[in-house]
Amino acid sequence: YFRSDLPRCKNRSLHQWKCEMNLTSKPLAILIFVLMFGGISFSSLMGWWETETTKEPATFTEGEFAGMANPADIRGSYTFGDITNSFDIDSQILAQAFGITTEDPAAFGVKELETIYLDSGFEVGTASVRLFVAYYNGLPFDTTGLEIYMPQSATDILLARGNLSPEQLAYLKAFTVEVGAAAPAVEEPVTEVTPVATEVHSE
After folding, report:
1. 10 Å Cβ neighbour count for 17?
2. Pairing of strands 150-151, 176-177
3. How many Cβ atoms are within 10 Å of 73's Cβ, its own excluded?
4. How far is CA 127 from CA 60, 108, 130, in A?
5. Fewest CB within a 10 Å sphere: which of 49, 67, 96, 111?
6. DSSP string spanning the chain?
7. Residue 159, Cβ neighbours under 10 Å: how many?
8. d(CA 74, CA 72)
9. What is the distance between the alpha carbons of residues 5 and 17, in angstroms, rounded to a whole number?
10. 164, exposed or middle or buried, with CB in 10 Å at 0-12, 13-18, 19+?
11. pLDDT(203) > 60
12. Higher per-residue pLDDT: 155 or 22
């Protein structure tokens, strides 16, 4: 602690007062250092201290899927590789589903989809990935009141997998969209003009 009885210091020499300050402040500094770094070390040991975001989605807590990763918790900060680790879907399949061409699909960030499909007129993004993962793995996903658009390429993969319920098929039919395809150019007809010979009369 710091001594605060300054009125009594008038009977002491300045040298004695400084010595008492040193004797009380040094142990205090050491105590603060020990508490700060000791607390961090203890928290790390117990698994309470994390320096970066954990890329593991929440799990289902009840029912037949209890303990399995919940696709509804997939976030925009995830990469396709993170999804592969939690849901056992190859990142190449995710890239194919959403029309992503890259040398390293595992490093592709889910939030980047919104930018890629920004001009498509449809909102294709994190929610679309959640729905795709859920339907692909046969996991429950509540779409009540939601309009989640799915690229045709993703729907084709889900249909080929053959594990969709009638309700899921109806939902995909309603919200599957053609995106990313450029409209074909329309050629205007060319009118050929045939030159007409002009007779020149000389008088």
Report:
1. 14
2. parallel
3. 14
4. 18, 16, 5
5. 67
6. -----GGGGGGS-HHHHHHHHHHHHHHHHHHHHHHHHHHHHHHHHHT---SS------B--SSTTTTSBPGGG--TT-BHHHHHHHH---HHHHHHHTT---S-GGG-BTTHHHHHTGGGSS--SHHHHHHHHHHHHT-----TT----EEHHHHHHHHHHT---HHHHHHHHHHEE--SPPPPPPPPPPPP-----------
7. 14
8. 6
9. 11
10. middle
11. no
12. 155
Structure-token pair, residue 151:
């690229």
Residue 198, token pair as written in the block: 């002009």
Tally the C-alpha atoms within 13 A of residue 94's C-alpha that lie toward its C-beta.
31
Residues 6+ apart with CB under 8 A from 141: 71, 72, 130, 131, 134, 135
- Overall pTM > 0.70: no
In the beta sheet, which residues pair with residue 86? none
pLDDT, one tens digit per residue, over 42-81 is 555 555 544 455 678 999 999 999 999 999 999 999 999 9
